[in-house]
Design goal:
ABC_transporter-like_ATP-bd; alpha/beta; elongated; 30% strand; 13 strands; nucleotide-binding; single chain; 4-stranded antiparallel sheet; ATP binding; 6-stranded mixed sheet; transport
Length: 302
């Protein structure tokens, strides 16, 4: 079932077009990552989907909502920099959010207890928000976005400002939530998207340059890759090994050299034989699958 369908979505500011005609749809109970570099337009898209800013042209249609009808009751939204009343307790804040969302006093209390348990901050429910850690605040913010049982929850860079521990807490929460909730979250951190999402929307300079599941994207853009790590400078290794087999491209990340080759079996045999004969100071030899970062760089460079 499709929750929301986007067609020809555009946004301009003073004749400068920042979102350049997007087409995509979001299906029920999927976790979708809106992936792109800072400034790609991710926040603008989420704000249009949430009704916070107007679209310049195009159409956003939610299943079950007639044209002109208020669709905001169907969505929950957590901005990149959420603001809390830090003098409130977590429980007070969620009950307050529930009442604003239209829940009765009793329903708000019941729902608050459910969500405090779900996001893992029940033990801190009577603690003032000002005493919460960054990860706890993000989990409280996600609970606020879920308070009225929306069909779609949108999270803008939910882990980008967190330390590793807080980031892990929120990613594990998203992993649990996606089993029952449709989630759209924006991020520029590729590993986070690869870890928890079912589908990916690649955004670059206001355009959707690729979309699909991880498996679909890997199948489409799969490249045979051998990763090598040596002690010392890598220049002489690159030049020599590249002359032995057909190499499509070479990338360097820190001390790791990645050879993208046409024939992985041939390259493995030739590389290992040559490395053994020359006795080069090899630290690591790995045949790896195409990562999300590899896919992203490939589609962006087109």
């Amino acid at each position: 079932m499709v929750v929301v369908k986007v067609k020809g979505l555009k946004k301009s500011y003073q004749k400068h077009e920042v979102i350049k005609g997007l087409d995509f749809e979001i299906r029920k109970e999927k976790c979708i990552a809106l992936l792109g570099a800072n400034g790609a337009g991710k926040t603008t898209i989420l704000q249009m989907l949430s009704g916070l800013i107007k679209v310049s042209s195009g159409n956003i249609s939610f299943t079950g909502i007639e044209e002109g009808e208020d669709f905001r009751k169907l969505i929950g939204y957590l901005p990149q920099h959420p603001v809390f009343y830090e003098w409130m307790t977590g429980r007070e804040f969620l009950e307050y959010a529930g009442k604003i969302a239209g829940l009765s006093k009793q329903d708000s209390k019941v729902r608050t207890e459910e969500l405090l348990e779900l996001v893992g901050i029940m033990e801190a429910k009577n603690r003032r928000i000002g005493k919460y850690s960054g990860g706890m605040k993000q989990r409280l913010g996600i609970a606020q976005a879920l308070i009225h049982r929306p069909q779609l929850v949108m999270l803008d860079e939910p882990v980008s400002a967190l330390d590793p521990f807080g980031r892990r807490e929120v990613l594990e929460l998203l992993e649990r939530l996606k089993k029952t909730t449709t989630i759209l979250f924006s991020t520029h951190i590729l590993n986070d998207a690869e870890e928890v999402c079912d589908e990916i929307l690649f955004l670059h300079n206001g355009r959707l340059v690729e979309s699909g599941t991880m498996e679909q994207l890997r199948d489409k853009h799969q490249q045979a890759k051998i990763d090598l790590v040596f002690k010392g400078k890598e220049d002489k290794y690159i030049e020599h090994l590249s002359s032995l087999v057909k190499v499509q491209s070479v990338t360097i990340e820190g001390s790791k050299i990645s050879f993208f080759v046409t024939d992985i079996e041939q390259a493995r045999t030739v590389f290992l034989k040559e490395l053994a004969e020359l006795n080069w100071p090899l630290v690591k030899f790995e045949i790896s699958r195409t990562s999300l970062e590899d896919v992203f760089m490939k589609v962006v460079e087109k």
